[in-house]
């Protein structure tokens, strides 16, 4: 705790969090080089926390390290990679949801409910800031469950997987209808946790991941058909 009574993240953690959002939202597009000295000036910090944050981000798959070019923002996942990603999440997330339900607390439920409220407020119409916020809230929902599982290895494994789909959704401009479907499934997971239905929580999470996989494939097809898409 600082002298003013506040809690502040270490510099490397703050750099990591900021870069994570920038990468997920496409502010730093695929192929952009991440030069340590330029990021150091941009964030007004020494190169050390920049190096630490980039090393951590490499494990998320958001960035890649090349021997000649250094760190580069990774391309978006393709259809086969998304299928593999969702299969991995299907193995992991029902287990972590079950564990989180067993450890549920009032504070945890309140934080989950806040993410659902953000998703419920997603507006219809052209892709915009509210939809980006929706997908970030979706990621937060799953991250909260990972943390509440009480197993740091599960939480770390999830963090290496979870943001990839959100990055694809946000940069690929996944639609409002998909967001609303995901929100409804979050509501069912929440209801199961709130009622103490441990098995029901795991089942609801499994159903959610299977459905999300189908929606992701819809997004892949739509992106491939979009004007300017590679042939």
Q: What is this structure's SSE topology?
A:
Elements: H1 11-25, E1 33-34, H2 36-43, H3 47-60, E2 63-66, E3 70-73, H4 79-102, H5 106-120, H6 129-148, H7 152-159, H8 162-171, H9 176-195, H10 198-225
Antiparallel strand pairs: 1-3, 2-3
C-alpha-based Rg, rounded:
18 Å
The low-pLDDT segments are 1-7
Number of strands: 3
CATH class of the largest domain: Mainly Alpha
CATH architecture of the largest domain: Up-down Bundle
Estimate the strand proportion: under 5%
Count of helical segments?
10
Fraction of residues in helix? over 70%
Order of the strands making up the biggest sheet: 1-3-2
The CATH homologous superfamily of the largest domain is termed GntR ligand-binding domain-like
Provide the number of structural domains.
2
The termini sit apart by 54 Å
Q: What's the overall geometry?
A: globular
Largest sheet: 3 strands, antiparallel
* Class computed from helices, strands and strand pairing: mainly alpha
């Amino acid at each position: 705790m600082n002298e003013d009574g506040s809690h502040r993240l270490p510099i490397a953690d703050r750099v990591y969090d900021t870069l994570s959002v920038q990468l997920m939202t496409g502010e730093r597009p695929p192929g952009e080089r991440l030069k340590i000295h330029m990021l150091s000036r941009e964030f007004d910090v020494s190169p050390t926390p920049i190096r630490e944050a980039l090393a951590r981000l490499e494990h998320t798959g958001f960035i890649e390290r090349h021997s000649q070019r250094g760190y580069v923002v990774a391309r978006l996942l393709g259809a086969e990679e998304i299928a593999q990603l969702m299969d991995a999440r299907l193995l992991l997330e029902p287990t972590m949801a079950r564990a989180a339900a067993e450890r549920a607390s009032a504070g945890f439920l309140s934080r989950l409910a806040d993410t659902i409220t953000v998703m419920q407020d997603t507006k219809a119409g052209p892709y915009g800031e509210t939809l980006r916020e929706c997908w970030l809230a979706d990621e937060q929902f799953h991250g909260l469950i990972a943390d509440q599982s009480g197993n740091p290895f599960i939480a770390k494994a999830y963090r290496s997987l979870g943001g990839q789909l959100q990055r694809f959704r946000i940069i690929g401009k996944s639609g409002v209808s998909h967001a609303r479907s995901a929100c409804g499934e979050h509501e069912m997971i929440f209801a199961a946790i709130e009622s103490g239905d441990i098995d029901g929580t795991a089942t609801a999470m499994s159903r959610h991941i299977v459905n999300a996989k189908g929606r992701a494939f819809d997004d892949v097809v739509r992106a491939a058909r979009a004007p300017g898409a590679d042939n």
